[in-house]
Amino acid sequence: MTRGRPFEPGNKFGRGRPKGSPNKKTKQAQKLFEDHAAAIMALAINKSREDAQMLRMLAGRILPRQKDSPVKIGRLPMNTFEDLAWASEAILKKATSGKISLSDAQEIFEMIENRRRVLVAQDLEGRLSALENAGRPSHEGWPPS
User: Fold this and answer.
1) Closest to 112 (Cα-Cα) out of 141, 90, 136, 96
2) DSSP string over 92-120
3) CA gap 73, 67 in Å, rounded
4) Is 0.70 topped by the overall pTM?
5) Do the Cβ atoms of 90 and 108 come closer than 8 Å?
């Protein structure tokens, strides 16, 4: 037997578990945690009353997940520059009235700005194509005899 070889010659079962896939123990641990998550969290919260470090760890685990939760803002049309102006105003009203957080509003404004850039690029491309086509001579009767 030679060192450094993962399998003996003649292995009929492939190269083993694919890289990055969870092993059986990890899957079992995840299932066990899912089945008893409420009891585990209750125990951790009770314990964190005495342990400030555990409280910080719990807050760090729970709060970031809430940030990525979807924000209900309704349908915002974004096909024209007028639509973008209307969407910006609607988001500003929701943010100033407290219906959505300022950080969520900022992220939405960034998406509106990205959409505006796309519309500007499409508009410029259309104008450039129109100019190029207007400057070309007609090919009828070409070349002259």
Assistant:
1) 90
2) HHHHHTTSS-HHHHHHHHHHHHHHHHHHH
3) 15
4) no
5) no
